[in-house]
Amino acid sequence: MIKKKSVNISGHRTSISIEEQFWQVLKEISEYKKKSINSLIFEIDKKRNINTNLSSAIRLFVLNYIRNN
After folding, report:
1. Cα–Cα distance between 17 and 35 in angstroms, integer?
2. What are phi and psi of 53, to 5 degrees?
3. Tally of structural domains, the chain
4. In angstroms, how far is the first alpha carbon of the chain from the final one?
């Protein structure tokens, strides 16, 4: 099921819709790295390709994190 959440990126509120499973793993990653979800999403946003939407960039980040750890 897709879940919509509001996040704050550099003082700008935006909504992101991704599957609950991705939110859960993203939360686990942020806890492991001792970072807030917002700061982790900010890092993902800074590194994403301009042609990739933020929701897709988050999914790719989670997938790559799981593959590499």
Report:
1. 21
2. -75, 160
3. 1
4. 25
